[in-house]
Design goal:
The chain is mainly beta and 259 residues long. It has one helix spanning 2-23, and strands at 30-34, 39-43, 52-57, 61-68, 71-75, 86-89, 94-96, 119-123, 131-134, 143-147, 152-157, 162-167, 170-175, 179-180, 194-198, 205-209, 218-223, 227-234, 237-242, 246-251, 255-257. A 5-stranded antiparallel sheet has the order 6-5-4-1-7. It is globular.
């Protein structure tokens, strides 16, 4: 009986968190590292009154999608079989990830498969939340990572349902309906404005800001090769349409007119 109650509580808690995740609108997460002497409590809500359902070891790399009531919203696989499970942790015990971690998370995710011969796609701008990268071409397969609107995808083979991609040097799969070839967003941009293409160093992105200053908050980041339409130019800045009809400001030196 006791075992049944424990399982029931775990199931109810998991479904509660999944419902919250489906309802929430997440920003693209930033990676942090757990920095504690013992273990960091992960709670089911943003406060000490919520239950602790998991503990994270020092050095564990996690994704933080935002903050609620001063608590960090964490996306992590806590071992319940749901890669998208969310939790809440005290941000005072997190530090920005610098590419290294003492966490023993198992085998390396990197491989040696080249992107040569692949076709470059992007995750559709209409994508809300994240696109799961799977080990095999089915939704029950293990999740290898996440992709977000505007991210580049290197497609080895494309089909109507699933596409085989190169991800971190290994073959993986994503659902085809959420990706498109670069440039296919041109038709979704408003008729107004002159067409430009983002021209930045491959591997970097162009910051879209709320105003004409590097100090202004960032709205988005655009991949090299993405298209924008310039509404107006002010010195070294331009106001542009991007991702359908969104507007923001970018530096002119990083966009080139399309002839």
């Amino acid at each position: 009986m006791k075992k049944f109650v424990v399982i029931l509580v775990a199931v109810m808690m998991t479904f509660s968190m999944i419902s919250f995740a489906n309802a929430a609108s997440f920003n693209k997460p930033e990676k942090f590292v757990v920095n504690v002497q013992t273990k960091l409590n992960v709670r089911s809500g943003p406060g000490m009154k919520y239950d602790v359902f998991a503990k994270l070891r020092n050095g564990t790399v996690i994704d933080v999608a935002g903050y609620d009531n001063g608590w960090a919203i964490v996306l992590h696989d806590f071992g319940y079989g749901y890669a998208e499970t969310i939790g809440f942790v005290d941000p005072d015990y997190l530090t920005k990830y610098n590419g290294n971690s003492s966490s023993n998370s198992g085998a390396s995710n990197s491989g040696n498969v080249s992107t040569a011969g692949t076709t470059k796609y992007t995750v559709k701008s209409s994508m809300s939340g994240w696109l799961n990268v799977r080990k095999s071409a089915n939704t029950s397969s293990a999740r290898l990572g996440r992709l977000y609107a505007g991210d580049t995808v290197y497609v080895a083979s494309y089909s109507d349902n699933w596409s085989k991609i190169v991800y971190n040097g290994r073959y993986a799969y994503v659902m085809s309906k959420y990706i498109s070839k670069p440039g296919s967003n041109i038709s979704s941009l408003p008729a107004e404005g002159e067409l430009f293409v983002v021209n930045v160093t491959p591997g970097t992105k162009l910051n879209v800001r709320t105003g004409m200053s590097k100090e202004k908050p960032m709205l988005d980041r655009l991949e090299n090769g993405a298209y924008v339409k310039v509404i107006a130019t002010y010195g070294e800045w331009s106001k542009v349409y991007y991702r359908s009809n969104r507007t923001g400001y970018v530096m002119n030196q990083f966009i080139t007119p399309v002839k």
